TrEMBL record:
Keywords: Signal. Residues 86-208 form the DUF4232 domain. This is DUF4232 domain-containing protein. It holds the Pfam family DUF4232. Residues 35-77 have a biased composition (Low complexity). Residues 1-21 form the signal peptide. Residues 23-80 are annotated as: Disordered.
Amino acid sequence: MSTVRKAAIALAAVSALALTACGPTEDGAAGGPGTPSASPTVSPSGSATATPSATPSKSGAPKKTATPTKPPKSGSTDPDYDVFPCSTFDVTFTASLAEPTTSSYLLKITNKGTKACRALGHPIVTFGDLDGQATERGAAPGIEDALRLEPGQSAYAGLMGGANDGKGKTVNSIALTMNTESDLAQTPLKASTPGFYVSPTKNSVTAWMNNAEDALSL
């Protein structure tokens, strides 16, 4: 073999060794396109641990508070809560002869106001210049069930003076006030009752009723 040929073979071998000793190509260099992505961290148990998300938590956002409910309106829902007892300032009064034999009179009151009122219990009746008042006859409803009078409505009561037994007196007028279950001062309402005989033991008056027939039949 010629000296020139031997020299060429030796040069080729040296070049091959030089290429083998070089590092990774440019594609494999750090930061190059060929760089593999970072692998997830492996826990001691062998499972991969996910990288915490960088998205901020919404727990810090202000919470919506419930809208407070409105307080109930003042006042009662009961339609009768502001209906007060009738007084002589609220009504007109008349007395008409119903039965001469027993000196029975029909008493009538009418609500002359603009608001309803309640006719409580029995009327309070006095006889002219005689002392005392008519005896209550029959039971009366309680204040919650007392007769309600709308403006213009009337209530009735039956007044009996009693048969002439020679023990009583004759009067020509009576006066009426209303039961208000209070200390309200009232102006008595008067009515003419010519020849009304008042027996000291048999005179009486019924509770207020919503019709004349019941008032005279009790």
